[in-house]
Specification:
- This protein is mainly alpha-helical and 370 residues long.
- The two termini are 42 Å apart.
- A two-stranded antiparallel ribbon has the order 1-2.
- The protein is globular and about 70 Å long.
- The chain has 18 helices and 2 strands.
- Helix 3 runs antiparallel to helix 4, helix 6 runs antiparallel to helix 7 and helix 13 packs parallel to helix 15.
- 77% of the residues lie in helices and 1% in strands.
Length: 370
């Protein structure tokens, strides 16, 4: 195990953030960075840190980081994250250090900064493992594997999944086993191996049932199972798993992001069966949650208005979808072209519709031959 070097923290985390005095409402423009507004909340948090110490100051740094992240200025947010980690390290509180490290990695993951993430993730894993924070260790390990999959490093993700599962079994940690099996399921799904993906995530849910009930982990595995079931075309089981996520949110106010994804699945299933009222209900729930990117819900919105015979609106939304997809030639573009062809046919623009269908078929052949 690598030693968690103090020098690493001194050089990277302790360096103070150089910031001139600012007034509320002022637009801050730093070289090479996006402008952001210095809000009243930021100003208040910044000022009180001068009179705080210990965990209280740590929590204030975290809140300030959240405020800056909300403005979209990730570089400045990273500086506050580093202050948060440095303050936790100064206090020598391992619980707070783990929270700070986990928070920092979560943000780097959200930013999509693979270089910064991978430069520190292994040291953080070593620290958590050394001090016995296995729950956080397995969560971060899962995050690392997900990041590897996102950037196309499939073999490395598979290797880390095997290593994580072996380690979790050695410690007889059922939550760790569940998360490792789920990570392996995602890797198999990336390879298009639906059978192994399905059996891994199902085994993960069984292991999770033997551990202390971790709602967020259950919802994550349930969501991954829904993705596999959709790929397998099993609508009956997909509906069942989506309704579970929906019920958990409504009864326990579970994480909204998981419910919103379930609502998208339910909307699609209902629209596929021309159950327009219920399809639109779930689609509106997903859109109003503000958790679903426009590119994910827009195809369903186009489909709804087309089936509801609102062809002009459907075509306008299809134009929006095309602009978001750009010049890509992936499945999303093929789906958009297919929907456009259907709308044009319903508008009795048969020649244009036929041209769209031909282009759709050509792209499908091209994708198949790759």
């Amino acid at each position: 195990m690598r030693i968690f070097l103090r020098i690493f923290f001194i050089l990277v985390f302790i360096a103070p953030l150089q910031m001139k005095a600012m007034t509320v409402g002022e637009t801050v423009v730093l070289p090479g960075r996006a402008p952001f507004t210095w809000t009243a909340q930021m100003d208040s948090l910044y000022k009180v840190t001068k009179h705080q110490w210990g965990n209280i100051r740590c929590h204030t740094y975290r809140k300030l980081c959240d405020e800056v992240c909300a403005q979209g200025e990730n570089f400045t947010a990273l500086e506050w994250m580093d202050r948060y980690v440095a303050e936790a390290k100064t206090q020598g509180n391992t619980r707070e250090i783990v929270s700070a490290l986990q928070y920092r990695l979560d943000k780097l993951y959200d930013f999509g900064w693979d270089k910064e993430f991978f430069s520190s993730v292994d040291d953080c894993l070593d620290y958590m493992y050394h001090y016995g924070y296995l729950h956080e260790y397995y969560l971060i390990f899962t995050q690392k594997i997900a990041f590897l999959l996102n950037i196309g490093r499939m073999s490395a993700a598979m290797d880390d999944g095997d290593k994580m599962l072996e380690d979790a079994r050695k410690h007889q940690d059922q939550l760790g086993i569940a998360l490792a099996l789920d990570a392996q399921a995602r890797a198999f799904l990336s390879f298009g191996d639906l059978n192994n993906a399905y059996h891994r995530v199902k085994a993960g849910l069984v292991a999770l049932d033997k551990s202390s009930h971790d709602v967020k982990s259950f919802l994550q595995l349930n969501q991954d199972l829904m993705i596999v079931l959709k790929s397998m075309g099993d609508e009956r089981m997909l509906r069942k798993r989506a309704l579970i996520a929906d019920a958990m949110y409504r009864q326990n106010h579970a994480v909204l992001a998981y419910a919103s994804r379930a609502w998208l699945f339910l909307a699609e299933i209902n629209l596929n069966h021309h159950q327009l009222k219920s399809g639109k209900y779930y689609l509106d729930e997903a859109i109003n949650s503000a958790e679903v990117p426009e590119l994910q819900y827009l195809p369903l919105l186009v489909d709804y208005h087309n089936k509801n015979k609102e062809y002009a609106l459907a075509l306008s939304l299809c134009d929006r979808l095309d602009s978001l997809l750009g010049d890509s030639r992936d499945d999303g573009k093929i789906t958009a072209l297919s929907m456009r062809a259907s709308i044009l046919y319903n508008l009795k623009k048969y020649k244009e519709s036929a041209e769209c269908y031909k282009l759709t078929r050509d792209m499908q052949v091209e994708a198949y031959n790759k």
